[in-house]
Design a protein that fits this description.
Layout: E1 10-13, E2 29-34, H1 44-55, E3 59-64, H2 84-99, H3 101-106, E4 108-110, E5 114-119, E6 125-131, E7 134-135, E8 143-144, E9 148-149, E10 160-161, E11 173-176
Parallel strand pairs: 1-2, 2-3, 3-4, 6-11, 7-8, 9-10
Antiparallel strand pairs: 5-6
Pfam family, one: Metallophos
InterPro entries: Calcineurin-like_PHP, Metallo-depent_PP-like, UPF0046_metallophosphoest
Protein name: Calcineurin-like phosphoesterase domain-containing protein
Length: 189
């Protein structure tokens, strides 16, 4: 190992879609990253069960972002037959599950779009950029248009920058639900 480096074990999960992971069969890691789609449709009870499932995995730090299937975690109403007021309460209930006592007990840190710095007990420090947004529409949560650049302030002729929390220099881990531009990112609609 090079001087100044600290061995840190990281597990990346995504798209568990309400499936159970048996934490007792998982390797022990320092950091667990879950990059979205805990649920099929963002139901509050499904989020609760997902938090319990992630609680069975041993990791000092568990970072979680939403994905396009986690509707209730998107502040923009995307549920039919629900008024804006009803949806606001639904969204608040979902957020409470992800940041409230159950999530804390499970060791989960739920992150909205932005840049964060963490330090582990082994001394490892790293910066993480997170975003639940995914190119496409079709009624899913956290959408942006395919010709928009959600992640960078860079001026590109083929994209319109809509970055409100762009990826900063010095970021060690980029944690998004959607893939990078031109790498398996084609969507219909």
């Amino acid at each position: 190992m090079a001087p100044g480096t600290i061995s840190t074990r990281v597990m990346v999960n995504s798209d568990t879609h309400e499936h159970s992971l048996d934490g007792s069969t998982m390797p022990q890691v320092d950091v667990l990253l879950h990059t979205g789609d805990l649920t099929n449709f963002g139901e509050v009870e499904s989020l609760r069960e997902s938090v319990q499932m992630l609680g069975t995995i041993e990791a000092e730090l568990k970072l979680v972002i939403a994905g396009n299937h986690d509707f209730s975690l998107d502040a923009s109403p995307r549920v039919e037959n629900m008024s804006d007021e009803e949806y606001a309460k639904y969204h608040e209930a979902a957020l409470e599950i992800m940041i409230g006592p159950s999530a804390k007990e499970a060791g989960i840190t739920y992150l909205q779009e932005g840049t964060y710095t963490f330090t582990l007990s082994n001394g490892a420090t790293f910066r993480v950029y997170t975003s639940p947004y995914t190119a496409g529409s079709g009624g899913w949560a956290f959408p942006y248009e395919p010709l928009e650049d959600r992640f960078s302030d860079a001026k590109r002729t083929d994209r319109t920058s809509i970055a409100t929390n762009s990826i900063l220099s010095g970021v060690d881990i980029v944690m998004t639900h959607g893939p990078p531009h031109s790498i398996l990112d084609q969507v219909d609609g």
